[in-house]
Write a structure and sequence with these properties.
Strand order of the largest sheet: 1-2
Number of strands: 2
Largest sheet: 2 strands, antiparallel
Distance between the termini: 56 Å
Strand content: 5-15%
Order of helices and strands: HHHEE
Number of helices: 3
Radius of gyration: 29 Å
Structural class: mainly alpha
């Protein structure tokens, strides 16, 4: 859908640019380029864009509705999960390789370690 929107917009703008060049150079059918350019932009690109936006809004509403339904039905289970030991903290945690030491240069990479240079 996005490709169709961008393709029709490019074609419409190409017709309008040919029309603009036609103002300076006397091209035959100059007004026809204006009509085609505006017609493609208004009759093809705009409805496709509005259709894409409505599909996106529907998708967003369904995701929010599903999340709201899950949140209200599992309220007690969610509270139990939050009080557990394995509940993640709110700070940003790094994953993968971490570098021990003050800087990356001259340090060794290790896995499953958090900020080793702060533990000295």
């Amino acid at each position: 859908m996005k490709h169709a929107i961008s393709f029709s917009a490019i074609i419409g703008l190409a017709f309008l640019s040919i029309r603009f060049v036609g103002l300076f150079i006397d091209l035959p059918y100059n007004n026809l380029f204006l009509i085609f350019g505006l017609g493609i932009l208004v009759l093809v690109t705009l409805p496709l864009y509005l259709l894409e936006q409505s599909h996106y809004a529907k998708l967003k509403r369904s995701i929010l509705r599903k999340y709201k339904k899950e949140k209200t039905s599992n309220k007690k289970e969610a509270i139990k999960k939050k009080t557990g030991v394995n509940y993640p903290s709110f700070r940003r945690q790094k994953s993968g390789l971490t570098w021990r030491g003050g800087s990356v240069h001259g340090s060794s990479a290790q896995r499953n370690e958090r900020k080793g240079f702060l533990k000295h």
